[in-house]
Write a structure and sequence with these properties.
The chain is an alpha+beta fold and 218 residues long. The chain is built from six helices and five strands; from the N terminus they run αββαβαβααβα. The radius of gyration is 31 Å and the shape is elongated.
Length: 218
């Protein structure tokens, strides 16, 4: 004869087992639904990579102070600002190479952003009439290159080496984006007097004028 209190204990354990079984089944169903939802929301194809294109870079050489065009194949996104950042990133990657003819540390990550704006007329005052929508779409552009503070801080000091870096950036932008006719520089988002003590970063550069004849000095 089973005592009454043991029968009661068995009933309680049986009910607890049933409740636990139902709870586990519900948790399993919820986990299964989340898994299916995750699979449905996952991309069905790999993200597209920008196609490789030919880009002309104006590469500096410290030995003779020249800027020479080099054609490189690299992925270029369709957005003009991202495109400009990509070509400048490649240029600075070349300079960061241990065997570079114009050694500058930092590499492509030294370019934070490149902003493309309608270029004001050279010598224009602040009261100049804003450009029309047509001019914004097809007119000349001002490129604002925002460099990192670490790039400026580690850049070799000297009038020639700094000038070569600045002019090669300007020339590369113009060669890849011909609408860029003016270039200005920021460092960490603010104006800086010089790159590393010599090259003036407060002025507006005209890259078309900076492009040398092949083999010529800047």
């Amino acid at each position: 004869m089973i005592p009454r209190h043991q029968k009661l204990l068995y009933v309680i354990l049986l009910l607890a087992s049933l409740v636990m079984g139902v709870t586990l089944w519900q948790l399993r169903e919820r986990a299964h639904k989340r898994l299916i939802a995750g699979q449905d929301s996952a991309p069905t194809s790999a993200p597209q990579v920008a196609p490789a294109e030919q880009a002309t870079l104006l590469v500096a050489n410290d030995s003779d102070g020249s800027l020479l065009p080099q054609v490189h194949s690299l992925p270029l996104p369709p957005d003009p600002g991202a495109r400009a950042r990509a070509v400048l990133g490649k240029l600075l990657d070349l300079y960061a190479d241990p065997d570079a003819a114009h050694p500058v540390p930092g590499g492509g990550s030294s370019v934070l952003q490149v902003f493309l704006l309608p270029a004001p007329p050279v010598g224009a005052s602040a009261q100049t009439v804003p450009p029309s929508p047509e001019q914004r779409q097809t007119g000349p552009q001002l490129a604002v290159v925002n460099l990192t503070g670490s790039f400026a801080a580690s850049h070799p000091s000297g009038i020639q080496t700094e000038t070569l870096t600045v002019l090669s950036i300007c020339g590369t932008l113009h060669a890849s984006l011909p609408r860029v006719t003016q270039v200005r520089f920021l460092v960490d988002g603010v104006e800086r007097a010089t790159l590393a003590g010599h090259a003036d970063l407060t002025r507006t550069y005209l890259p078309a004028d900076a492009l040398p004849a092949e083999g010529a000095h800047p």
